[in-house]
């Protein structure tokens, strides 16, 4: 074995003031003169350890020549798929109490006399006056700069962005899951009135005699829309909540109706437990399916309805008994309430109730008698009226959801102004957009969300989204109109962001939608009048034209009269014959 010789070199560079010169010193050594000794290494010839001779017989018995040979080559780069789960962050609410500070240790800032004396002492100091004058020049400079340039000037006032060409779309922002092992149905959703930064969700097993009811949790939750990982507040109640609603005047108050018929209210500043609940003997006898806050002098009045056929008014400051009650009667039949609609735009005393029989009752709280309180009855649905809401821009018109259709109604007509075609799946909930007069949202039992835009289409939805595999039980839109929340039967709440074309009103949209609704209203009213005229005409013809069979006798009656006539003649002739014989 021959080892090469290694050269060790060291370079030194010297800088000379006049010119640069590089001086190299080379030192050479043989490998044997440094490092580990190589005396044990020696050259030797190769040594054969084993030998494998070829066996031609194996070629014919165990191997086969591949002819032809196909080789697949794909001229694209090889790629691999990797899943990455982004790190989740948990947000915690932290408060801080700031006390006034910066005073010397010998000054008690809570004593006004000491602080006043210290201020006078500081203000007389020449250094303090000099600093104030120096700072005043800087402040004066910025004030003059702000006066010269209006930083809040709006350069495009009166201009509106045109989103009509934008394709309708929606994307999921976050998903709120029922934290319990037994997943319950999302029965209602309510946004925080202050910008919708929180969302209150009630969970309940709505199936009658569900086997999971005994072991399922009774808790409902309030989430911050920025933190779907953990609820901000847990709402405790004796029985499962069917409905839960924020107070629009006082954002700390919530009212809810339970499966056992109780009404409760919460103050989020006091924690998870209800502040007060109604008495069981003075409450509803069935689950409370809807509750609304009333617009009045105080922020403490609400109304509730249930399938027991009652509407009860409450003052949450004294929930011992309802302040007023109304029995939902249509003729002699008691109607079970499923949905309740109240808005100040429709009238401070007017409200509507959707019943499980498919009818809608227009009621007036100030009626003198129970018959006066329950006014117009609108019939149209084949099943319970699950959703009922007035149009926020045109309060005269309202929408209802029941069976496989949605209907648009007018207060002045008993028949719907507009009716959709029958959907393939049952409709469960709906609501209007608060920012666009012609847009509303409906959910179905197959887990789809339909977005309707009457400004562009009437016969079919503008956008249909498959949100969940299970049915979507509830839907609600934020006041700004860009955020939508829908809850499913499996306990998931999907927070979705709508595109600008679905959230922002388009130019001339309100006028166009109003003309559409008024045109359909006039058409339906003319049809109703024509139907009444035809009915009156038919009644008059039936009265003037008498039935011929009623004035002409039957054949049997004629024979009887004729026989009676012949008998009378025969009797008279017999008497005449007897008289002649006597004479």
Produce the secondary structure layout.
Layout (H helix, E strand, L loop, with lengths): L6 E9 L4 E9 L27 H7 L49 H12 L2 H23 L21 E8 L7 E7 L6 E7 L15 E5 L8 E3 L5 E6 L6 E6 L4 E5 L8 E2 L10 E6 L7 E6 L3 E6 L8 E4 L1 E2 L2 E2 L2 E5 L8 E6 L3 E6 L5 H4 E6 L5 E6 L6 E6 L2 E6 L7 E2 L7 E6 L6 E6 L3 E6 L9 E4 L5 E6 L5 E6 L3 E7 L1 H4 L5 H36 L3 H4 L3 H28 L1
Antiparallel strand pairs: 1-2, 3-32, 4-5, 5-6, 6-7, 8-9, 9-10, 10-11, 12-13, 13-14, 14-15, 16-17, 18-19, 19-20, 20-21, 22-23, 23-24, 24-25, 26-27, 27-28, 28-29, 30-31, 31-32
Give an account of the 3D structure.
- By secondary structure, the protein is α+β, with helices and mostly antiparallel strands.
- The chain has eight helices and 32 strands.
- It has helices at 56-62, 112-123, 126-148, 370-373, 500-503, 509-544, 548-551, 555-582; strands at 7-15, 20-28, 170-177, 185-191, 198-204, 220-224, 233-235, 241-246, 253-258, 263-267, 276-277, 288-293, 301-306, 310-315, 324-327, 329-330, 333-334, 337-341, 350-355, 359-364, 374-379, 385-390, 397-402, 405-410, 418-419, 427-432, 439-444, 448-453, 463-466, 472-477, 483-488, 492-498.
- The strands form nine sheets. Strands 3-32-31-30 form a four-stranded antiparallel beta sheet. A four-stranded antiparallel beta sheet has the order 4-5-6-7, with no helix packed on it. The chain has a four-stranded antiparallel beta sheet with strand order 8-9-10-11, with no helix packed on it.
- It is extended.
- The protein starts with 6 loop residues before the first strand and ends with a helix.
């Amino acid at each position: 074995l021959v080892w090469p010789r290694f050269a060790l070199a060291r370079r030194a560079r010297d800088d000379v003031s006049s010119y640069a010169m590089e001086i190299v010193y080379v030192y050479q050594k043989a490998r044997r003169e440094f490092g580990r000794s190589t005396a044990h290494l020696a050259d030797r010839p190769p040594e054969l350890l084993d030998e494998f001779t070829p066996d031609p017989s194996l070629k014919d018995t165990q191997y086969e020549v591949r002819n032809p040979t196909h080789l697949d080559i794909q001229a694209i780069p090889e790629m691999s798929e990797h899943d990455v789960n982004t790190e989740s962050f948990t947000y915690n609410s932290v408060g801080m109490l700031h006390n006034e500070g910066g005073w010397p240790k010998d000054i008690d800032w809570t004593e006004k006399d000491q602080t006043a004396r210290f201020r006078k002492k500081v203000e007389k100091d020449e250094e303090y006056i000099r600093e104030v004058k120096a700072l005043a020049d800087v402040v004066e400079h910025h004030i003059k700069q702000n006066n010269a340039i209006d930083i809040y000037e709006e350069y495009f006032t009166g201009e509106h962005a045109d989103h009509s060409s934008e394709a309708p779309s929606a994307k999921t922002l976050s998903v709120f899951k029922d934290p319990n092992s037994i997943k319950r149905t999302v029965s209602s959703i309510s946004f925080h009135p202050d910008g919708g930064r929180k969302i209150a969700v009630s969970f309940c097993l709505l199936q009658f005699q569900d086997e999971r009811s005994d072991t399922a949790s009774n808790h409902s939750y309030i989430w911050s829309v920025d933190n779907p990982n953990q609820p901000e507040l847990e709402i405790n109640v004796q029985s499962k909540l069917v409905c839960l609603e924020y107070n629009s005047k006082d954002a700390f108050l919530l009212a809810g109706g339970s499966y056992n018929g109780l009404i409760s209210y919460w103050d989020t500043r006091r924690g998870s437990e209800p502040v007060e609940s109604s008495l069981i003997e003075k409450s509803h006898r069935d689950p409370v399916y809807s509750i609304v806050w009333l617009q009045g002098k105080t922020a403490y009045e609400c109304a509730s309805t249930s399938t027991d056929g009652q509407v009860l008014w409450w003052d949450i400051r004294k929930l011992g008994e309802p302040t007023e009650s109304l029995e939902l009667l249509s003729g002699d039949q008691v109607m079970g309430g499923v949905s309740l609609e109240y808005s100040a735009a429709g009238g401070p005393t007017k409200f509507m109730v959707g019943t499980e029989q498919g009818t809608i009752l227009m009621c007036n709280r100030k009626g003198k008698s129970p018959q006066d309180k329950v006014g117009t009855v609108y019939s149209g649905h084949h099943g319970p009226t699950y959703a009922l809401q007035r149009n926020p821009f045109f309060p005269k018109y309202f929408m209802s959801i029941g069976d496989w259709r949605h209907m648009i109604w007018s207060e002045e007509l008993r028949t719907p102004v507009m009716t959709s075609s029958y959907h393939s799946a049952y409709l469960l909930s709906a609501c209007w957009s608060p920012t666009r007069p012609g847009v509303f949202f409906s959910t179905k039992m197959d887990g789809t969300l339909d977005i309707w835009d009457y400004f562009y289409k009437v016969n079919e939805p503008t956008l249909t989204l498959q949100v969940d595999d299970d049915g979507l039980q509830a839907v609600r839109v934020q006041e700004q109109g860009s955020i939508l929340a829908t809850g499913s039967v499996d306990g998931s709440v999907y927070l979705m962001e709508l595109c600008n074309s679905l959230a922002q009103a388009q130019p001339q949209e309100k006028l166009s939608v109003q003309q559409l609704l008024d045109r359909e209203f006039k058409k339906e009213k003319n049809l109703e009048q024509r139907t009444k005229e035809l009915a009156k005409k038919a009644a008059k013809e039936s009265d003037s034209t008498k039935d011929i069979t009623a004035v002409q006798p039957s054949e049997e009656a004629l024979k009887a009269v004729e026989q009676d006539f012949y008998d009378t003649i025969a009797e008279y002739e017999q008497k005449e014959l007897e008289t002649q014989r006597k004479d």
